[in-house]
Amino acid sequence: MVLDATIQTVLWIGTALMTIGLLVFVYWTYTTPEENRNFYYATSLVPLIAASAYFAMATGHGSINVGGHIFFFARYVDWVFTTPLLLLDLALLALPSTRGKLGLIGVLLGADVYMIVTGLIAGFLTGLDKYVWFATSTIAFLFILYVLVRLLRETRSRGGAVRGLFRNLATLTIALWLCYPVVWLLGTEGTGILTIQVEVILYAILDVLAKVGFGFLLLSNRAALSEPNSASAHVVVGD
Ligand code: RET
Fold first, then answer.
1. pLDDT in tens, 130-175
2. Which residues line ligand 1 (CB under 6 A)?
3. What spacing in Å lies between the alpha carbon of 181 and ligand 1's midpoint?
4. According to the 3-state scheme, what is the secondary structure of 103-122?
């Protein structure tokens, strides 16, 4: 797929920023005591996957032509792996123990994968069918938002650094994630109000904030991640 210079430049900047995020997170992983590394492993995988997806898109291998417009399917391959990892981070941070909560975590991550896969199907289609799959994906998204708001309420009763960190991360996540279906609807996959160039720029900003921004906020907060009642202290072998 041949891409114009603006799109290519934005995709290369995306690749570079994700790579920088990856290098910083890997460095932080190795400078953290092994028993506190749970969050570091999951969060480092996110920019690794995103850098690969951006590289594929920048080199013309992450898109195809659907109904006369460029469809970047590589985004969805990225999101199907990275969004569950981000939600896993949030769930582990919010839940003082994963015991008895694996069902909740499973259903949260399952709904997320379902949201991305149904969004991918919508991207390949045209006409009314497209919007049926968009609506299906949105139902899963609303469920995810509901769980996040419930976790926000539950963490209110908890003290310490975890509470404030979770509040900031969950708020950031809800605000940024809400923008994705809006960009989709306004962009070339939806109504076509935005040009493909503007769409690529908006997704790049959202992706960098939702992945690298989120990771910086989480991993730079070592106090919360090593708090005795945070998940990092609870998820031990055999738990
Ligand atoms: C789609 C279109 C179909 C309806 C909905 C969507 C939501 C996508 C979301 C994506 C989040 C991506 C992130 C990536 C980076 O880390 C698939 C656009 C609801 C919420 C956070």
1. 999 999 999 999 999 999 999 998 888 776 788 899 999 999 999 9
2. 79, 82-83, 86, 115-116, 119, 122, 134, 137-138, 141, 177, 180-181, 184, 207, 210-211
3. 6
4. HHHHHHHHHHHHHHHHHHHH
Three-point CA angle 68, 113, 180, nearest 5°: 55
What does the pLDDT read at residue 197?
Answer: 97
Note whether 82 and 49 are within 8 A (CB): yes
Using most ligand atoms within 8 A of CB, pick from 83, 180, 184 the residue to mutate for ligand 1: 180
- C-alpha 62/C-alpha 45 separation (Å) is 19
Residue 5 tokens, joined: 């210079």
CA 234 vs CA 17, 30, 59, 97, 147: distances in Å: 32, 20, 42, 6, 21
Mean pLDDT, the chain, integer: 92
Here the tokens at position 105 are 């975590």
pTM above 0.85, yes or no: yes
